Amino acid sequence: MKRYVLYHLLMIALIGSLAACTMRKPEDVKGYKIRLSFGPGEETKIAEAFLSIKDSTSIFLKAGKYRFDNLSIAQVSHIKIEGAGPDKTILDFSAQSQGGEGLRVTDVKGFTIAGMTLKDSKGDLIKINKSEKVFVSYVHAVWSVSDSTTGGYAIYPVMCKNVLIENCYAQGASDAGIYVGQTDSAIVRYCKAYKNVAGCEIENTSHAEVYKNEFYGNTAGFLIFDLPDLSQRGGHVKAYNNDIHENNERNFAKAGSFGSTWGVGNAAPGSGVVILSASDIELYNNNIFNNNSCAISVVSGFFIDPNAAAKMNDHYDPIPKDIVIHNNVMIMADTFPSAVYEHHTGKILVAIAKQLKVQDPSRNKSNLPFIIYDGITSNVLTHKTGPNPDNLCIKEQEEDLFVNADALRMQTKKWRPYTDVRPFLCNQL
C-alpha cells in the first residue's frame, strides 16, 4: 500500500508538470486564417459564428460564464475552439430547452477544443461525430448532479479517426464520462473521470491506448466493449499505468439503458475493469484497487444475451480473444459494496461468491477473487474442448487471483465455478 501511495503522489506531480508545460496559450492561433474572439454577453454572436464557421477558423472565448441552448459546428476543416482555462471559461447549458447535445461537432477534419468547462446539458455535453484529427485538451465536462436525469456521455467522439483526449475531466454522466466509440486510432491520457456510471469506455474502437488516467468513484472504472449491430469491430487496445480505484457507486443509468440487453445499466457496482466481447486487449501496469466486487472481469456476449450467436458477423464476435493481463497491482476489500446487492448483474456476482464458499468453506473472503472469467469460450461455437481456446493470458502475483464462473451451467445442478488459474497462465511473458 505504501508503494502505491508513493507512486500516486509521483503521478500527480508528473501530470501537474505536464499540464504546466503543454497547456497552450490562448493566443497560439498560428496557422488559422480567421481568428475570432468573444466574451460573456455575446452568446448570440457566438452561436451564429459556430453555425457559419469557415475553414481554418479559431474562436477564443474569454474568461467568464456563457449560457447557451446548444452549439453546433459541421462540415468544415481546421477548426479550433479555445477558452482561457477550464476554471475560467464556463459554457453552461442548464437552460437547454430540449435534450440534444450541448456542443455537437459533425464531419470536421482537424478539430481542436481546449481550455474550458461544459456543464449541465440535457443530452451529451460534447459529441464529436464522423470527424478526423480530433484533439480534446483541458476540457472539463460535468453535470452538477449524478443521477438518471443527466446526459449519457460527457466527452463523446464517435465514428472518428485519430482522436486524442488528454488532461480532461468528466463527471456525472449517466453512461460514460469519457467514451470513444466506433473509432479508428485513439489515445486517452492524463484524464480523470469521477461519479459517472462508467468512468471511461472504449467501444468498438480499434487501435486505442489508454494510459496515465485516474478513474474513480464511478459505478465501473473502465470498460472495453465490443457490441453487436455497430459499424465496426474494435480491438488492439492497450491500457496501462492507470489508477482505477473505489468504483463502488450505485448504477444510475437511464431506464432505457437498463431495459436494453446491451446497456451500461448492466455494469455492476464495484467493477474496476470490464472486458466484454473484445479481442486483442492488453491490460498491464495498472493500479486497480478497492473496486470491491471485482478488479477485472472478462466476459462474453453470451453472459448478457443467450442469443448472442445470432448477432455474429464481420463486425461482431461475442467471444473475447487474445486478452493479456499482466503486472497490475490489485487490492480489494473482503466484502462487496452495498450497492451490488440491488443490481441485477451484481446479484450474479454475489451468487458466484456464495457458490465458491459452498465448495470451499475455508474461503475467508465473502466476495470474489480479483479476476472473474465467465468461462464461455469459442468451444460453444466449434464444439471443441480445449481448456483455453481463446488465449486468455494472465500473469499476476496476487493470491486469490482468479475464478472461472462456469457461467453456462449456472442454472444447473452441475454448476461449479473454479479457481484454478493454471490453464490461463501466460507462457510468453
TrEMBL record:
The keyword Glycoprotein does not apply. Residues 151-301 form the Right handed beta helix domain. It holds the Pfam family Beta_helix. Residues 1-19 form the signal peptide. InterPro entries: Beta_helix (IPR039448), PbH1 (IPR006626), Pectin_lyas_fold (IPR012334), Pectin_lyase_fold/virulence (IPR011050), SO_2930-like_dom (IPR022442). Keywords: Signal. It comes from the Bacteria. The keyword Signal applies. SMART domains: PbH1. This is Right handed beta helix domain-containing protein. NCBIfam families: beta_helix_1 (TIGR03805).
